[in-house]
Structures are given as structure tokens and as C-alpha cells.
Amino acid sequence: MIPYGRQNVDQSDCDAVLEVLRSDFLTQGPMVPRFEQALAARVSAAHAVAVNSATSALHLACLALELGPGDRLWTVPNTFVASANCARYCGAEVDFVDIDPQTYNLSTSALASKLQEAERSGSLPKVLVAVHFAGQSCDMAAVRALTRSYGIRIIEDASHAVGGRYQGSEVGGCAHSDITVFSFHPVKIITTGEGGMALTNDARLASRMRRLRSHGITRDVDEMERRGEGAWYYEQVDLGFNYRMTDLQAALGLSQYRRLDEFLARRREIARRYQELLADVPLILPFQRPDTESAFHLYVVQIDPTRTSTSRAVVFARMRKAGVGVNVHYVPVHMQPYYVRRGFRVGQYPEAEKYYSRAITVPIHPLLSSSELDHVAAALRQALD
Ligand SMILES: *Cc1c(COP(=O)(O)O)cnc(C)c1O
Q1: Closest by alpha carbon to 245, among 37, 50, 19?
Q2: Atom of ligand 1 nearest to the CA of 187
Q3: How far is the CA of 183 from the centre of ligand 1 (A)?
Q4: pTM of the full predicted structure?
Q5: CA 361, CA 159: separation in Å to the nearest integer?
Q6: Does the C-beta of 183 come closer than 6 Å to ligand 1?
Q7: How far apart are CA 258 and CA 365, in angstroms?
Q8: What is the pLDDT of residues 314-351, one digit of tens each?
Q9: What share of the chain is helix, strand, coil (3-state, %, to 5)?
Q10: Ligand 1 midpoint to CA 95 (Å)
Q11: Of the residues 83, 171, 190, which should be mutated to test ligand 1's pocket, given the most ligand atoms within 8 Å of the CB?
């Protein structure tokens, strides 16, 4: 089965990890700050905090922004559940904004009207999580412009978009947000096995996240209530967690980071090739805004109901039978039983639901060979015949 995504780990990555295994520090050594500095420099963010997953990074981002009981967080239904769950960890409520039918990202017109409604009913959110679906940035300038006057804080969930660009800048620079989150899960653009990172230009947010990642403990005398009682002294000033990334993971991440441009080039080449090969197949291919450069974490096509009567379920089954590990991203989060129990219902976000009923994710990753790519395209053509 050709997987829809997979990691690309080579000898240089293995060597980097082995070197740490033989060194003095398996965790809390020099590799984590090195990895943080490399990514922060690339995306022009002032601070980076590496953690053990993007889910942890989202949780810390919400805590740093002081999201708590009585507050609301908004995100989109077309995302992985973690983009919404981070609010629930903090005791806050979740609400959703529907997606744009072209980009499958947050719809700025849906956001504008929901904000007006929320202002009238006194239910404005404290935090908005904008998800860069499939690796293409949301229209962040518009999102910021719409939310600024309400004082809404913005988290970019860029789990799909490491290496993506928006209006000439790297995703992660937080030009229109407070915090950006990356994921290094093996199916994502670069991997640390499990891992994530929060980037910000705000020193206070960075130091809060850094402290919360490690039990709420500080060794910085400026953050202490009682001054140093000696060189051994540390203080727990918050209730934090152990969300640390290990040095083994950071070494893998740093090595993968050196290969990022090679990965992005191959992903973008595969996307271009699909676009050529599938142009006359009854599919809606991914639309790209001219001011974005997607990292192409996912390649999602929609079955075009105006040109074929074949259902998504039939295409999906035929593709799996042809040895292609197709997938579907995402079951809308508001339709998950956990969120249905919290009062959401089918029919509430029609664009996300319509998209979901027609979407199919086809393989895209740097190790996908040209002959595998041709096989996927031919199988799709046949499945829709
Ligand atoms: C993968 C993913 C996450 C969670 O990432 P982990 O590193 O696995 O915790 C969050 N949001 C989105 C959109 C994702 O795709």
C-alpha cells in the first residue's frame, strides 16, 4: 500500500541521533536550544519553545494567553481534533467558524459575520486558532484585521505548514498572530518522532510557555518570589507539565531541518505533477491563493459531483483496492461524539460538511517515486471512470 504520507529518515538523520545517544545528555542538553534557534531564525520569530508534540504546544499556547474557564476559543471544523481540544484542557468552551469552499481554510466572511453575532450576544472568543490546512496559510492579514478591535488573541496551527509561505514571509514569523505552532509527527513536513514547537515574538509568552513545559519551575532569579538561597535553588511558580522535547528528538529535528528545502521542493513537484495528470479527471484540485506557497503536507482532491456520479466511498474503496493508501482529512470536529455531547450537531457548518463528503487525500511525501505517483493518478482516473 502506498501511504498517503510518511517520514523520510536517511543516514545523516540516524548519525545525528546516534551522536546524542553517545553524548552526556539525552535530554535537557544542547540540542533542544539549537533546534529552537534554527527554526526561529528561518521563520524570523524571536522565540521558539520545543515540546513533545504540537498538541502540547497548543495547550501551552492557550495557557500562556490565559485562556480559562468562562472563556471561548474558536477554530474551524476542518482540522485535527487537537486544534479544539486545547481549549477544553484549559476549561474553556470551543466554538467553530465554517471554512472557505475554495481553500478549505477558515472563511474570513464566516468569521466576520460570526464576530458581529458574538458581539451582540456577548459571546466573543478570547482566542482564535487559525489552521493552515494542507500546508496553505490562512489569510492571516484579514484574520488579524477582523479580530484586532476585539482584542482576540491568535494562534496559528501550522502543524501542516512548516516551510510554507504567506505574502512573501515564512509561516511561523507571527506577523499577524501571537503564537504559531508546528508539529513534527512523522507524517508532517519534518519529524522528531513525536514533537512540536511554539514560536512567538513576545518574550513574556515565550518564558511562560518555557516554564510550563517543565513543571512550572524556574531557575531565573527574576522570576522567583524568594531570591536564590544558593546555587541549588529553584522555584515552582506555576502548575506546569513535563512537555519537554528530548535531545535525541531535537537532534533528529535539526538534521531533518537541514533537509527541509529538499522535502518542500519534492512535495511541490508532486503537487504540480498531480495537477497535470488529473486536469481532465472529474475532480476539484487544490486551489492555491496567489499570495501563498503551500508546504503541501496533504494533497486533497474533491470528487466533483457536477461531472461524475461516482461517490467518494466508491472511489475510496477502489483506490485502497488498487494499493493506494488514500485517507480523508478531516471528519469535521463538531461531528465527533465528544463535541456532539457538548451540543454541536450535523448541519451546523455546511461548507465543512460538504467538503468532508467529497474529499479524499492522495499520497504526497518526499519518498513517493515518480512511478508510484503515476500509479496513483492512473488509479484515480480509473476509479472515477
Ligand atoms: C498533527 C496535527 C496536530 C497535532 O500534532 P501532534 O504533534 O501529533 O500533537 C494538531 N493540529 C493539526 C492541524 C495537525 O495536523
Answers
A1: 50
A2: 1
A3: 6
A4: 0.98
A5: 17
A6: yes
A7: 17
A8: 999 999 999 999 999 999 999 999 999 999 999 999 99
A9: 40, 15, 45
A10: 19
A11: 83
Q: Which residue has the cell 485517507?
A: 327
Q: What is the DSSP string of 316-368?
A: HHHHHHTTB--B-----GGGSHHHHHTT--TTSSHHHHHHHHHEEEE---TT-
d(CA 283, CA 380): 9
Cell of 27: 535530554
In the numeric block, which cell numbers belong to residue 354?
Answer: 460538504
- At 369, list the grid cell: 517515486
* Residue 12 CB burial class (10 angstroms; 0-12, 13-18, ≥19): exposed
Residue 226's pLDDT is: 87
Q: Extract the C-alpha cell encoding 52.
A: 513533545
Whether a cis peptide bond, with omega within 30° of 0, leads into 150 is: no
Q: Where are the alpha helices (DSSP H) in 10-80?
A: 11-21, 31-43, 54-64
> Strand pairing of 169-170 and 165-166?
antiparallel
Sheet containing 169-170: order of strands: 169-170, 165-166, 292-293
Q: Residue 236 forms beta bridges with which residues?
A: 217
pLDDT tens, position by position, 114-126: 999 999 999 999 9
CA distance 28 to 206: 17
